[in-house]
């Protein structure tokens, strides 16, 4: 379902104060463990987090890296700023859309995004922007929910998707692996323990 960026931004702005509570159960049960695994692969001196949201990944940031984090929702970024202050964390926060990154080519060693590309209006445009700002040999690390490979489940997800987009601005039927494969990364790895609908992806420039 195609929804413009302004409408998606408004939905995330609306949910920002309650976002952590809304996802609290799944965060504790599944997501936190996967985030930890994702960030354990991050390497390099300068790392970019795309879609920082409320700062759920702050606890996993590498201690020695220079961190930059962005989000397109002002209200989500406000929550991240408050969390940064509470944690006394050194991270530069920017209000930026991944589809139009302002950074120079070959700027980052690693780019990380978790559950972000479900809500990017033009995901391939965002992925190509990430490719541009990655250094040669740099890596993109993604944790994303995707369309099920089970035909019945995929049909259900496709039916429900317009409602989910209207409620929270996220698509539940994205084919993110195919979108990454459409970009010029020289190698792409899918973690073998990834589930049918949640994928941990590593792509190297």
TrEMBL record:
GO annotation terms (biological process): methylation
Superkingdom, taxonomy of origin: Bacteria
Gene3D superfamilies, per the entry: Vaccinia Virus protein VP39
Pfam families found in the cross-reference section: Methyltransf_11
Domain Methyltransferase type residue range list: 48-141
Keywords (A to Z) from UniProt: Methyltransferase, Transferase
GO MF annotation terms: S-adenosylmethionine-dependent methyltransferase activity
InterPro entries assigned: Methyltransf_11 (IPR013216), SAM-dependent_MTases_sf (IPR029063), Thiol_S-MT (IPR052356)
Name of the protein this chain belongs to: Methyltransferase type 11
């Amino acid at each position: 379902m195609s929804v413009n960026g302004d409408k998606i931004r408004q939905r995330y702005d609306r949910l920002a104060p309650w976002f952590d509570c809304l996802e609290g159960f799944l965060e504790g049960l599944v997501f936190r463990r996967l985030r930890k695994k994702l960030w354990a692969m991050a390497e390099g001196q300068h790392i970019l987090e795309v879609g920082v949201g409320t700062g759920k990944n702050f606890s996993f940031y590498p201690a020695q890296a220079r961190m930059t984090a962005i989000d397109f929702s002002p209200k989500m970024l406000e929550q991240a700023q408050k969390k940064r202050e509470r944690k006394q964390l050194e991270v530069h926060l920017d209000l930026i859309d991944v589809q139009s990154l302002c950074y120079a080519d070959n700027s980052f060693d690693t780019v990380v995004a978790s559950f972000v590309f479900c809500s990017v209006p033009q995901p391939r445009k965002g992925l190509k922007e990430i490719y541009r700002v990655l250094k040669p040999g740099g890596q993109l690390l993604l944790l994303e929910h995707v369309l099920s490979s089970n035909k019945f489940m995929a049909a259900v997800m496709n039916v429900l998707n317009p409602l989910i987009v209207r409620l929270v601005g996220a698509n539940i039927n994205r084919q993110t692996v195919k979108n990454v494969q459409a970009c010029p990364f020289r190698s792409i790895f899918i973690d073998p323990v990834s589930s049918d609908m949640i994928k941990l992806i590593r792509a190297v420039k």
